[in-house]
Amino acid sequence: xxxxxxxxxxxxxxxxxxxxxxxxxxxxxxxxxxxxxxxxxxxxxxxxxxxxxxxxxxxxx
Length: 61
Fold this sequence. Notes:
single chain; mainly alpha
């Protein structure tokens, strides 16, 4: 996947997260949970894009 595409997806996720946090009224706890979930999903997606996720899943101790 080209680096430019990854950058576009990260910027779009950030803008959407900012719009939701700014313009949709939510309780603070729900907003925090939503932010954490979005960050975890983006980090897992990045790990999969760079192939680190499958490498980590293949490690057996």
